[in-house]
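Hello everyone,

My group is preparing for a crystallization screen and wants a predicted model to guide construct design. The compound we'll soak is zinc ion. Before spending weeks at the bench, it would help to have a computed complex in hand. I've included the protein sequence and the ligand's SMILES below. Output in structure-token form would be ideal because that's what our pipeline reads.
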Amino acid sequence: MEYRLSCTKCGTSQKNQAAFRCSKCRAVLEAEYDYSTLKLERGFRGAGIRNSKYISFLPLDRLTCGLGEGGTQLMRSTISSFDDVNLLLKIETTNPTKTFKDRGSAVEITKAKELGFKDVCCASTGNMGLSVAHYARKAGINATIFISSNANAIKIKRIKNEGAKLAEIKGDFNKALNAAEAFAIKNNVFVCGDYHFRKEGQKTLVFEIIDQMRYSVPDVIFTPVGNATLLAAIHKGLREYKKAGLIKRMPRIAAVQSEKCDPLVRAFNNKKEIKYTRPETEADAIAVGYPTFGFEGIRALKETKGMAIAVSEQEIEDAVRFLERKRIYAELGGGTAFAGFIKTYYGNKHLVKGKKVVVIITGNNEGVFKEA
Ligand SMILES: [Zn+2]
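Reply:
Good plan to model first. Here are the tokens for the complex, ready for your pipeline.
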């Protein structure tokens, strides 16, 4: 679909299609569409779910670098501990590189190719780098991945196996991010990562949830938060489905972080600006001290009467072990939203009891648990 890029903070339009931040204020950008021209294909509602189904909502004409991502299961929970909740689990671990990141990588790599780039780079704590490296290799594009010190060793090995160049940065994700952006500017390389095009690709996760629920709207969606791109993507996707007349109301969004890295939760619950927090969580996939989409994430929670929940490291591990006993395999970050659900169930039951609740299980790449 036709789109224009504009700044999420100052509104300045960006002509450069490879821009990753506002040329004026450095804030992140957003792809905006003219929804009056939106045309859904006949039979859209009933069509099978896959990333390419949603091309009308993406800033592309064709998804040329898709690798079969999306179309993941929305599993009805049979967990008896929570049988007074209409609980559904969206299992993202069956994507090509085992995380929801592939939805965004498909769009980013397609866009990089469309714009004629032969090289991409990306900052990552592991999963995103692996996904970008995989999609780049399949598209014949070179990838350089900037890895933070807290990145997971198993994921680093997998990134190397994809043939990507590794730049190991001493410091956390935000340090790696600065290094990747500086490298891109200096070398005219397309930047992948938590920016607007990735956010567009990740919207398909919530489109699928709505489609799989036959256009009824869940009451609450629990999502983990690292860089808050998925949180912002879920919100944008819901707004777009509402504009397209496919849903009539918004669900509440519940954002879950580890207590050892919870800048968004603190900011939302204390009604303050987001402040950098040194990430000390073992859940490397969400170890981000200053979320790139924090501003949009807070907006998503405000506009959906959402909630922000911090869970302990022990609660995350317990949640992952609990899922494991039900033969659902997730890494720590991948099971964090479920830890947030459990905490809400036992602490604020009225928020979930009798409600339609979706919990997103985002990934399984640590290799410390049995693989699905
Ligand atoms: Zn700006």
